[in-house]
Model the fold of this input.
Amino acid sequence: MSDLKTQPTEASVDAFLSAVEPAQRREDALAVCALMREVTGEAPVLWGPSIVGFGRYTYVNTTKKPADWPIIGFSPRKAALTLYIMPGFQAQADLLERLGPHTTSVSCLYIKRLDRIDMGALRALCQWSVAEMKRRYP
Done:
């Protein structure tokens, strides 16, 4: 359906996460995986070599072709744990203020240390994101 190079794979999410270094990033990734699994009720799927995604939606990309992407996901990158919050952050300034040390781009939330994050705010942000994506893409 999609020409995106990042596609869902059959690769083991557990094997991918168990190989993440350093240990702190691995522990953070495992915690975020458990949180997203609980929030979505979905099993994690490895998209491409490094994105753990939950659920799926189809959108029309800039080339006017349908493309699939996870409803929510994350990647334990070297510089930071990257969470994919697809609706963006404009409507959630209050949660971002409570969250703790982070940076954002359009749909990415970058967290260096999960132990410095308000997990209640992160859970609420993930819940809002999933609900919003399901509203936009029923």
User: Anything to note?
Assistant: The domain at 13-133 is CATH 3.90.1150.200 (Aspartate Aminotransferase, domain 1).
